[in-house]
Amino acid sequence: MTFTTSNIMSKFLTNMHSTTLPFLNNNFYVLSTQRRFMSKFLSKSATKRLPLTSKRARKGYYKGTGARKEGKITSLGRFIVDPTKRMNLIVPENLETFKLKPYIARTVPKWAPEDRR
């Protein structure tokens, strides 16, 4: 069966969801023209303005959670911790006599009396 331009165009017009294109010795690939993710509710220009998430991007996109690496991965795949990148928590020497508490009561005013206007 030979495929001409008119056959391909008629096939395209009858099935708007997929397009058949000839490529490399009569092998045919189907290219999807459907838009997914909110396409029912938003226009194409509106979907472009939405924030990019891992659901909307390609498979190589990794957004992360905002955490930073505390080392590096070697060529062998091992993770080496860098002590300069580690998070250090500074704790007071004597916690029993330390005046500040880890939590603040809701009754405490947000601004100091001298800073109020």
Automatic annotation (TrEMBL):
GO terms for cellular component: mitochondrial large ribosomal subunit. GO terms for molecular function: structural constituent of ribosome. Keywords: Mitochondrion, Ribonucleoprotein, Ribosomal protein, Transit peptide. The keyword Ribonucleoprotein applies. It is found in: Mitochondrion. InterPro entries: Ribosomal_mL41. It comes from the Eukaryota. Its main location: mitochondrion. This is Uncharacterized protein. It comes from Ditylum brightwellii.
